[in-house]
Write a structure and sequence with these properties.
The protein is α/β, with parallel strands linked by helices. Helices cover 30% and strands 21% of the residues. A hairpin with a 5-residue loop joins strand 8 and strand 9 (174-177). The longest helix has 14 residues, at 68-81.
Length: 215
């Protein structure tokens, strides 16, 4: 499924948006893909991205079972053919036998980005000691024409929001950074479009030399 989203917070147009951001969302679940229950991962990601991004973006969604080869094939299709700059997966990252999303992700990788998984576990450990059982990974997939960042996220909507956005104190100050703060600059470095975020949700970080003037 394809969905085009225009942010509601009057994002700037012009050089900073020279190419539309394309995001792939993949929910990995045997039962949801079979219709046993309604998928919650993709709707949670769509809602969060709509609030967090201040640049136009288009979404490609896929709901698939926990099959290693199918997950890898889907990631390749989203990057190589659907031209996604960022792919976010949800589900299939635990220690159970059917949890194979990290293995499928690593199978299509050109580079690994271990800091994303490390930070996600740090955020989740603030809530549950079983966060150490999570095996989320992040990778870069490069082709001759393009590159994309692929990140495995948790399966629960609450955990998705916390790991992407980070944790704030009662005064609203960020206590623990979420992983999305690093995503815009990572996309810059691999040749993707310039992404602006809504600082009320998450503040994307760039070195001063990499920032573009406001339009």
């Amino acid at each position: 499924m394809t969905l085009t989203t225009t942010p509601s917070n009057n994002a700037a147009t012009g050089p900073a948006q020279e190419r539309e951001l394309v995001i792939g969302l993949v929910s990995v679940s045997d039962r949801a893909s079979q219709g046993t229950y309604q998928d919650q991962g993709i709707p949670a990601l769509q809602e969060w991205l709509a609030s967090a991004l201040a640049s136009p973006f288009r979404i490609e969604t896929r709901l698939i079972p926990d099959e290693l080869n199918l997950i890898s094939k889907t990631l390749i299709e989203l990057v190589d053919h659907a031209h996604c700059d960022l792919v976010l997966t949800t589900g299939g990252t635990g220690p159970a036998r059917r949890d194979v999303t990290p293995e499928a992700t690593l199978a299509v990788a050109t580079k690994t980005m271990p800091g994303f998984g490390e930070q996600m576990r740090q955020v989740s450990l603030r809530f549950v000691p079983t966060a150490i059982l999570s095996r989320q990974v992040a990778v870069i997939r490069e082709t001759a024409a393009r590159a994309a960042l692929i990140i495995n996220l948790p399966g629960q909507p609450k955990a998705i929001k916390e790991t992407l956005e980070g944790l704030r104190g009662p005064d609203g100050a960020v206590q623990v950074d979420g992983i999305f703060a690093a995503v815009p600059y990572c996309i810059d470095l691999i040749g993707g479009p310039y992404i602006e975020t809504n600082p009320a949700v998450v503040q994307g970080f760039r070195p001063k030399s990499a920032r573009r003037p406001a339009v």
